[in-house]
Amino acid sequence: MNNAKDHLPGKMMALQLKEKVALYNSYMPFLEHGGLFVPTDDSFSLGDEVLLALELTDHPGKKFLRTQVVWINPARTSAQRPKGVGLAFSDDEICIQTKNLIEAELGNNIRSDRATFTM
């Protein structure tokens, strides 16, 4: 029997965040379970499910996160934001662990009012 948690999203993306500045620019703390902005020229629609293969500096290995498209930057904007999509983390254990890891890594910087790729 297939359960909703068993199916894999139809699309997959990879993101490597090797510097804290890139992590800050990509992280979306305003989402309930967190999320990340991924620069891409690919076309997506709001609500698309995406399996995100994430690599973070100082944390070996890839994390495979179930996400959903909740934000779209259609093209480079006047605010110099790259084209891409914002992916909201799901409420599964690996996503919650990743959210906590990212927020610990960013520390007080998470409350900075510096512009990011989304806000």
Can you tell me about this structure?
The structure is a single chain. The chain is an alpha+beta fold and 119 residues long. It has a single domain (11-109), classed as predicted glycosyltransferase like domains (Thrombin, subunit H), CATH 2.40.10. It has 2 helices and 5 strands; from the N terminus they run βαββββα. The chain has helices at residues 20-26, 93-106; strands at residues 11-17, 35-39, 49-56, 59-73, 84-89. It has a 5-stranded mixed beta sheet, covered by helices on one side. The N and C termini lie far apart (42 Å). The model has no long low-confidence stretch (mean pLDDT 87). It comes from Neisseria zalophi. Pfam families: PilZ. Residues 17-93 form the PilZ domain. This is Pilus assembly protein. GO terms for molecular function: cyclic-di-GMP binding.
What is the gist of this entry?
This protein is of the alpha+beta class.
Comma- or semicolon-separated keywords:
about 20% helix; Pilus assembly protein; about 120 residues; cyclic-di-GMP binding; Thrombin, subunit H; PilZ_domain; alpha+beta
Radius of gyration: 14 Å
Overall geometric form: globular
Query: Would you tell me which CATH topology applies?
Result: Thrombin, subunit H
Which stretches of 5+ consecutive residues score pLDDT under 50? Answer: none
Instruction: Calculate the terminal CA-CA distance, rounded to whole Å.
Output: 42 Å
- CATH homologous superfamily descriptor: predicted glycosyltransferase like domains
Largest sheet: 5 strands, mixed
- Give the helix proportion (percent range): 10-25%
- Topology pattern, helix = H, strand = E: EHEEEEH
The level-1 CATH class: Mainly Beta
Mean pLDDT equals 87
Measured by DSSP, the beta-strand proportion falls in 25-35%
What is the level-2 CATH architecture name?
Answer: Beta Barrel
